Predict the 3D structure of the following.
Amino acid sequence: MKFTINHWLIASALSLIASPSFAENINIQILSATIKDQKIAGAEVILQKNGAQSISANTDNNGKTNINASFNDNQDSLLIVKKTGYSNLIAKCPCDGMTYALSPEMKNLDGIRIVLNWGEKPEDLDSHLVYPNNHVYFSNQQGEQANLDVDDTTSYGPETITIQRKNNGQRYVYAVHNFSDAENPNSDLLSKVML
């Protein structure tokens, strides 16, 4: 019996050595969704994964945080960002190297805010909002009761449109245009990037 216990202890020790634990540094930046390039300090950034303990950290004065995660930064992970006065942000990972935008809480219940974030490529995505007698986009940033808050042309976003008050019965159409590939109207690059 003593041999069996020792054999079990040795096998357990070998399995611990064979499967070392790892840590992955996940770098995230948080910006304002409504003020271009404004960094959000003091936001709580939480990474969650089923079966693992949540990990959290706060952003510094540059809106950045570095989280040392004991699990992989992949599609099984979830990012949650919280800060008083802002709507909570929830996004699926991978998250490392990404920039996210927090939206200030809207006071008007008839309002809507659309925030577009993306990765490094393509560099320039454009938000468009079309509704009766209005088209809000980078060349026409003000519409009736709506405006383009932030226009980003250098990757990641945010690209933000706010509707202060939507009109009942009106149809609003939101679209994303890949301005980086504007010279190629038949390009399917945007559909491949979004997969």
Observations:
- The chain has two domains: 22-105, 106-186.
- The longest helix spans residues 2-18.
- The helical segments are 2-18, 189-193.
